[in-house]
Amino acid sequence: MWYHPKNWRTEPSDWAQKRYGDLELPIQLISLPTYAPWTNPIEKLWRKLRQEVFHLHRYADDFATLKRLVIEFLDRFAHGSDELLRYVGLLTPD
Question: pTM of the prediction?
Answer without folding.
Answer: 0.55
